[in-house]
Structure formats: structure tokens, C-alpha cells
Predict the 3D structure of the following.
Amino acid sequence: MADILNAKWNSNGNSRMDFVIAAVKLQAAEAAIEEALSVVEANVTHGRNYQLDDDPKAARDQDLARVDNLRTAHKLIDDLRMVLVHTIAFHEK
């Protein structure tokens, strides 16, 4: 069986639809992060923006590490969304 959440709808008054809405919101957050990453990578961390720095490579590498942290957050959101989707699919009706 797939990894699922321990939370079950109706045990505290929430409905299946509340779980579905949460999954949709997580998917929207993923899309927004992906769009933001695209803009940051194309326009902010482009090599030309480090030309005047004393150590352009080190400065860019530091910024790219910050971008990688956002990629990690994106992956964690995706993991939670997938667990939530599995919970919705496998929850006993």
C-alpha cells in the first residue's frame, strides 16, 4: 500500500473534499514555486549579474545554493501532496 497520512476525514468533522482542496492548494504552490524558480534562474542568477563582484563564481555559487534550498522545499511540498493524494485514494469510505 502507498504511504498515506494518519489523518482521516470525518474523525474531526472534516470532509473528503477538505483533503482534496488541500491537495489542489499544494499543487498550486508547486506550480508557483516552479514559475518563481524559472524567473530567478533566467533573470537573477544569470552569470552576467555577477560581473562586478570581486569573486563572481563564489558569489553566484552562494546564490545558487539558496535557489537549491527552494528546490528542496518544492520537493517536500510535492512529497506531501503525493501522500495526501494516496490518502484520498486509499482511505476507506
About this structure: Residues 43 and 49 are 9 Å apart (CA to CA). The chain has two helices and no strands.
